[in-house]
């Protein structure tokens, strides 16, 4: 039972699931019906520039903010972080390993954890308080740097995951504060999906949290596709956004 052990004593178990390719019916999956959505989107950031944090912040952040606003109708989007995953990330005269794909089913923020993120990351703290009092969401925008075969990214249909039985809060130490995610228990009723051979212009947007939406969150994970387990390493970049549907800051900064 995912609810029983304390967060740091929960066993990690492996399970085999059928993960269905969405390619034949990709338009069926939306943020409001399933919690995730694939959209076509070009970026001015070149493949070689994804390792350049400043270039990503200067170019990709505004692009993603505009994309999320247009897709959701949000009044305010703040891109607060990004994560590059792949074999290595060049930096000056040395190579720093980036994060590997996470083969662990989770949701980045619990319902309480989402408020912690919004209140701590939005620069204007008085405005942040207004955001969390209205309808707000936390969404990730996930993009391949090159075509994905190995360790593809899977999302579970939000309607197949039950809060009361499948999710448990998982505290995470983040610098000076404790944040909170969802740990997920295995359930044969979970319905899993991915995009086979996902291209760099096939962007996945998914909800970690929505305060008032018909779909409030999804759980997700990288998974091992036996046909491509020995392929080239996955390279991807994920942008993390706070989204408000009813608040606009006094001085627009997103």
From TrEMBL:
<comment type="similarity">
    <text>Belongs to the asaB hydroxylase/desaturase family.</text>
</comment>
<dbReference type="GO" id="GO:0016491">
    <property type="term" value="F:oxidoreductase activity"/>
</dbReference>
<dbReference type="InterPro" id="IPR044053">
    <property type="entry name" value="AsaB-like"/>
</dbReference>
<protein>
    <submittedName>
        <fullName>Uncharacterized protein</fullName>
    </submittedName>
</protein>
